[in-house]
Amino acid sequence: MTVSLQGNTALVTGAGRGLGRAFALDLARHGAKVLVNDIGGDVSGRGEGRVADEVVREIKDMGGDALANYDSVATYEGGFNMVKQAMDAWGRLDIICSNAGFLRDQAVHNMKEEDWRDIIDTHLTGAYNILRHAWPVFRQQAYGRVVLTSSNSGFVGNFGQANYGAAKAGLIGLMNVLKLEGAKYNVNVNCLGPGAATRMTENLVPEERLKTMGPELVAPAVTYLCSPQCDASGMIIEASSGDFGRAAIVRNGRVHIDDPTADKVEARWSQITDLNGAQPYWNMQQTFDQYYASKSAS
Ligand SMILES: NC(=O)c1ccc[n+]([C@@H]2O[C@H](COP(=O)([O-])OP(=O)(O)OC[C@H]3O[C@@H](n4cnc5c(N)ncnc54)[C@H](O)[C@@H]3O)[C@@H](O)[C@H]2O)c1
After folding, report:
1. What is the pLDDT of residues 48-94, one digit of tens each?
2. Please, what's the b/e burial string for 89-114 (b: 16 or more CB within 10 A of its CB; e: otherwise)?
3. If pLDDT is split at 50, 70 and 90, which confidence band does 291 have?
4. Cα distances (angstroms) measured from residue 98 to each of 24, 85, 111, 174, 192
């Protein structure tokens, strides 16, 4: 099957540069009309600019259709405005790439409350601000595709990123619930763990490596996840340098201890924490079913 987004419309946040720009261009290349959102701030999320205009021009130059939006994802009104702008212009909204973001790294004992809040407001609440307004549209259309740009920092941790790692891991929880709420309406929600050479990584990754990490090498995963050809939902897909894979939260089987005490837990610790045979689950009900099945088998 050929991946095609003909007739689809997309909203990509933080699409004025970096990964978001690459996503917007690739979605447009596959036929989607794109609302290019970007507040145009600096790498710490301060200031404003019109970087979205340039990406709109690039899409139009290749024969596509695009509009710019300069709202902040960090406000509820901003999310509303984006969805309304796409609906007013094109009458439907099929794809959301919630991608806007910035960094305010500090070890937690030095982290200002403002830096905690601003990061959560943009990366995590920013996704809610858009999806809250897009969701009724998705239900009405009985169709939607969502990619939430998460991060390895949230999957496994990265020193100095308590605010960012918490927000990015929060997106996994958001995905886990919305994949269930969207299933009946053919609305799929997935998370992306990208690695790419952007201004966000230019001082963190060795220069030689950055040369192999173009954002355009990540974009094909996003385009596929956002296509009608893809029926995956609730997955964490990692993509960098043309390498693609899946990460997941897995659970092992339970270890039953009669009359448990801390000493007995200590004695069984290696068994309790053994991930051999561990697997991901679709929802909470499945975890209960697995639990009761193991009880009745024993
Ligand atoms: N580059 C990587 O390797 C990497 C790795 C993991 C996760 N990410 C995530 O990918 C996303 C894109 O990052 P990037 O590397 O392209 O960085 P980038 O700085 O090049 O692009 C981010 C864009 O988001 C915009 N933005 C910031 N706050 C906004 C707001 N409130 N409203 C609208 N736009 C806003 C910025 O103006 C900027 O253009 C981010 O969510 C980032 O956390 C990037």
Report:
1. 999 999 999 999 999 999 999 999 999 999 999 999 999 999 999 99
2. ebebbbbbbbbbbbbbbeeeeebeee
3. confident
4. 12, 16, 25, 12, 10
Q: Which residues pair with 35 in a beta bridge?
A: 11, 67
CA dihedral of residues 19, 56, 137, 131 (deg, nearest 10): 30
User: Tokens standing for 196?
Assistant: 């790419």
**Which of 13, 38, 243 has the most ligand 1 atoms within 8 A of CB, as the residue to mutate?**
38
The protein residue whose alpha carbon is closest to atom 28 in ligand 1 is: 101
Hey, whose CA ends up nearest to atom 6 of ligand 1? 151
Euclidean distance between CA atoms 25 and 216, whole angstroms: 9
* Distance between CA atoms of residues 187 and 195, nearest Å: 26
Check if 164 is active-site: yes
The CATH class of 9-247 is alpha beta
- Give the domain ranges of the chain: 9-247, 262-297
* Residues shown for the chain: 298
